[in-house]
Design goal:
Blueprint lengths: L5 H15 L4 H26 L7 H27 L4 H32 L9 H22 L6 H15 L3
Length: 175
């Protein structure tokens, strides 16, 4: 029997862990739709509670939250499975809470910034110029800041409850 070098065992262990972390396609797609729907419902309740969802922008705003949550699930599920493979329930909970919560906020902020950039692009300089680059960076940064200040609060309290519930479900899942 030949002995493998530690580096080769690490690579094969990493590949096995990577292969085991690939979720079934049904869990990926159904989970994304379910997570996005629940987050959108949470945002709707929060916005109506704050009396802050104008009817003219309701479809766009809820669409951004829906798409951000769906993309977050698609990105977070393999990361959650990879980080929590053969780990105790506390680690599985923490991985789900971290990746799903951060992914939902970051990807929704990214979509919001892209929408914001699309609106302000009509007043920006031609593509590729130095001024265009600065306008792009500062428009993007201000949109992310605006989402952090005004948009993240719509995840509370219902989105946080949903995130804790999803993390508990992931932690209880048998591995």
């Amino acid at each position: 029997m030949t002995r493998q070098s530690p580096a080769l065992r690490r690579v094969s262990g990493f590949r096995a862990r990577l292969a085991a972390s690939r979720p079934p396609i049904a869990e990926w797609l159904v989970g994304a739709l379910l997570w996005a729907s629940l987050i959108t419902l949470s945002v709707t309740f929060s916005a109506y509670g704050l009396h802050r969802l104008p009817s003219t922008h309701k479809t766009i705003v809820l669409g951004l939250y829906f798409c951000g949550a769906a993309l977050a699930w698609l990105a977070a599920l393999p990361l959650m499975r990879f980080a929590s493979l053969a780990r105790p329930p506390e680690t599985r909970f923490a991985a789900a809470f971290l990746f799903l919560g951060t992914g939902t906020a970051v990807l929704t902020a990214l979509l919001f910034a892209l929408h914001y950039r699309q609106f302000y692009a009509q007043w920006h300089q031609p593509f590729g110029t130095r001024i265009w680059f600065f306008q792009f960076i500062f428009t993007f940064a201000s949109a992310v800041y605006q989402f952090a200040v005004l948009g993240l609060r719509h995840y509370l309290p219902f989105g946080l409850i949903l995130l804790i519930g999803a993390s508990i479900l992931h932690a209880r899942r048998s591995r």
